[in-house]
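stuck on whats below:

***
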Amino acid sequence: MFAFLAGGAVVPLLVPTSRGDESVSAAFKGFVFQQDTEEKSYSAGSIGESREGRPLIVEDLGEGPIRVYVVGGVHGEPPALRPTDELLAFFRKPSTKRRLTVRMLEDLNPDGTARGLFCNANQVDIDRNFPSNDFSPSLRHGMSPLSEPEAQAFWQDVLSFKPDLVVVLQSALAGPFLDGDGPSDAYGMQFVRGAASVDDRWTLLGDQGYAFSGSLGSALGKDRGIPVLNLRFQRDQDAHSVKEALIAGFDALAGSSS
């Protein structure tokens, strides 16, 4: 999951703020599977390839009662948001692994990220290529649902994973805030409660009551009843507050399983 601008307008690359803090683009600039020697319950691998042959990397962590699928990099235009190393470290903690089962997709649109483009290499918005009931064929959305290999690989994988919740990392001009699709309000309130404990700007908008043709939220949330949370960070938000809010929000979600 990313709607960088409502009309798909171009967003310039973010730069550090005048205080010298990292921006949100820097916070999500890289995702590296780090080697460590501690005993752990996770595995990393690929669920498929992009149109240009780049792997779609996922990592599985934990064995808790709540199953969460985390999605990064839906849109490649900077800032293309991907999971941070700090969030990965949080999911690897034994106390978190007991509470959550997480599948983390690093980047749904690696071709777009590599090129700095909103769409994939075929000029299709991946977040309009899913098989929602309201799918509308077009050059921008694809002429048929799941015509793009990225969308097809994710769709097969997320249904196989059977998540209780899907969380999509996004950015917006205004933020930070959370909006949801499907029966997501209970999870949304939990996340915002945690995130707001470190950044009181966080608010919950909930389901907006309107659909986006072919979107992940429409196909999973509205049509299949799988809760979807869209986490929308402000584009010039400093990296530290992004990382803190992510961890605090997911910690609150994990706490709901206790």
User: Anything to note?
Assistant: The CA atoms of residues 127 and 216 lie 6 Å apart. The radius of gyration is 17 Å. The first strand starts at residue 42 and ends at 49. Residues 239-255 form the longest helix (17 residues).
